[in-house]
Design brief:
Radius of gyration: 22 Å
Largest sheet: 2 strands, antiparallel
Helix content: 40-55%
Distance between the termini: 59 Å
Strand order of the largest sheet: 1-2
Strand content: under 5%
Number of strands: 2
Number of helices: 14
Length: 417
C-alpha cells in the first residue's frame, strides 16, 4: 500500500466524525474544520471561506421558518422538504467548491453520504437536497464577485525605514494581500474600521513598545514563564491548522452544546460568528497594507539613534516564533479573536462562560478559561510573547475586532418581528 492510499484511508476513517445525530450544523462545521487543516489555507482566506460556508448553511436553515433576515437568499424552502438533507446538500456543495482542489473528493463524499444515510429516500429528501444546493450556489456566485481573485494594486513590501519587508528565516512574500480589497460580508467597505495610525517611529512610546517586545518576546533569555512561552504555539493557528477563525469555531461548538442550542440557533450563531471573523480579516488586512508597518524584529535590528533616540537596537534579536508574512499593524489574530470572543458573548448574553480549548499547534494540551475575554487577552499576549507584535498591534486589533462584532450583531441576520 503506497503512502497516498494509506492517507486516503485514514482520512476516510476520520473525516466524517462529528455531531450528526445531535446537530447537523456541528457535524458540518467539523467537516469545514478538517478541510481547512488539510488544505493549509492562510488565516484570512480561511476566515472568508468559513463565512461563505456558514452563510450558506444559515440561509438554507432559515428558509424553513424564516425566523431571521437572511444573509442573501430571502426565499422559503419548499413545503415538505427535509431540512437535514438541505443542510447536507448546501454544506457539501460549498465544501466541493471551496476546498475541493485540496481535499480528496472521496473524503467529502463519505461525509455527505453519512449525512444522508438515515434520511429516507423520496420527495422530501430530494426537495431538501435541491433547496440546499440552490441556496449554496447563490451564495457561492455572490462571493465569487468579492475580488479575492484580483491582484492587489497597492504597495506590498518596501525597504523604506518603518515599512514592512520580508522577514527571516524564510523571507516569504506577503500572504494574500488581495484580502485587503475584498468585498466584506456585512461591513460597508474594507476600510470602515481602519485602525488609527501606528505610533510615530521617533516617539518615546514606540521605543518603549519595542523594548517590551524584545524583553518578553525573544527566543532566548526572555522574561516569560513556561505557560507564557507555550501560549505562542497554543494560539499560533497557522497553516495546517483550523486557523484563528476555525479555532473559535471549535470553541463555538462547546457553546452550542452547553447552551443546548437548537439547529436553527446553532446555524444563526455560527453565521454571525464567521461573518464577523471574515470581516475582521478583511479589516485587519486593509489596515496592514494601508500602513505597511514593519515587524518588531525588523525595527529592533534596524533602529538607530537617527530614527529614534529613545530606542535601543537589538541587532541579534530573534523572535520566539517566526514572524508571519504580512505587515504587523494591526494584529490579525487579535482582530479575529476580538471579533469572535465578542460575538459569542453577545450571542449568549454574557462574557462569562467556562470552557476549555485544545490547540492544533500544541496537540494534547487543554487550557481552561472562565470567560471569552480571558482567552482573547491571553491570545493577545501570546503574540507579544512570541516576539512578533508590539502591545499596540494587539490592543488595537482586539478593539477593532470587537467593534466589528458589535456592528455585525446589530446589522446582520436580525430576528424578524
Amino acid at each position: 500500500m503506497n503512502r497516498s492510499t494509506l492517507t486516503t484511508l485514514i482520512l476516510l476513517a476520520t473525516f466524517g466524525l462529528g455531531s450528526l445525530a445531535a446537530n447537523p450544523v456541528l457535524y458540518w462545521n467539523d467537516q469545514a474544520l478538517h478541510a481547512t487543516r488539510l488544505s493549509r489555507k492562510p488565516p484570512p482566506v480561511a476566515a472568508l471561506h468559513f463565512g461563505t460556508f456558514h452563510a450558506a448553511i444559515f440561509d438554507t436553515v432559515n428558509g424553513f421558518d424564516q425566523t431571521y433576515e437572511p444573509w442573501l437568499v430571502d426565499e422559503a424552502a419548499p413545503a415538505g422538504a427535509n431540512r437535514d438533507a438541505a443542510i447536507a446538500a448546501a454544506a457539501y456543495l460549498v465544501l466541493q467548491n471551496i476546498w475541493g482542489n485540496e481535499v480528496n473528493p472521496r473524503v467529502m463524499k463519505k461525509a455527505y453520504d453519512e449525512a444522508l444515510e438515515d434520511i429516507p429516500a423520496g420527495p422530501a429528501r430530494d426537495s431538501g437536497i435541491a433547496w440546499g444546493r440552490q441556496v449554496a450556489q447563490a451564495i457561492l456566485d455572490e462571493r465569487a464577485k468579492s475580488g479575492l481573485d484580483q491582484p492587489y494594486a497597492g504597495e506590498i513590501t518596501s525597504t523604506e525605514i518603518g515599512k514592512w519587508r520580508e522577514t527571516p528565516p524564510a523571507f516569504r512574500p506577503p500572504v494574500s494581500p488581495a484580502v485587503a480589497h475584498v468585498t466584506p460580508f456585512v461591513m460597508t467597505a474594507p476600510d470602515q474600521f481602519r485602525a488609527p495610525p501606528p505610533l510615530p517611529l521617533d516617539s518615546e512610546e514606540y521605543a518603549a513598545e519595542l523594548a517590551y517586545t524584545a524583553k518578553v518576546g525573544a527566543r532566548d533569555e526572555a522574561e516569560r514563564d513556561e505557560y507564557q512561552t507555550l501560549s505562542t504555539p497554543f494560539w499560533a493557528d497557522d497553516l495546517g491548522t483550523a486557523t484563528p477563525a476555525g479555532h473559535w469555531c471549535v470553541i463555538a461548538q462547546d457553546v452550542a452544546r452547553k447552551k443546548e442550542l437548537s439547529v436553527e440557533e446553532t446555524a444563526h450563531m455560527f453565521a454571525l460568528l464567521t461573518l464577523a471573523t471574515a470581516d475582521a480579516g478583511i479589516s485587519s488586512w486593509e489596515s496592514k497594507f494601508y500602513y505597511l508597518h514593519w515587524r518588531p524584529e525588523t525595527a529592533l535590528r534596524e533602529v538607530t539613534e537617527d530614527i529614534n533616540e529613545h530606542a535601543e537596537a537589538e541587532p541579534e534579536f530573534i523572535p520566539n516564533m517566526a514572524s508571519p508574512a504580512h505587515p504587523t499593524y494591526t494584529s490579525a489574530h487579535s482582530t479575529f479573536t476580538g471579533a469572535s470572543s465578542r460575538m459569542l458573548a453577545l450571542y449568549i448574553g454574557s462574557d462569562d462562560f467556562e470552557f476549555t480549548s485544545t490547540s492544533d499547534g500544541l496537540p494534547g494540551v487543554v487550557r481552561s478559561y472562565d470567560s471569552f475575554s480571558d482567552a482573547s487577552i491571553e491570545l493577545n499576549m501570546s503574540r507579544v510573547w512570541g516576539g512578533i507584535h508590539t502591545m499596540l498591534d494587539v490592543v488595537e486589533g482586539r478593539r477593532i475586532g470587537m467593534e466589528i462584532a458589535d456592528y455585525v450583531f446589530a446589522n446582520a441576520l436580525q430576528k424578524r418581528e
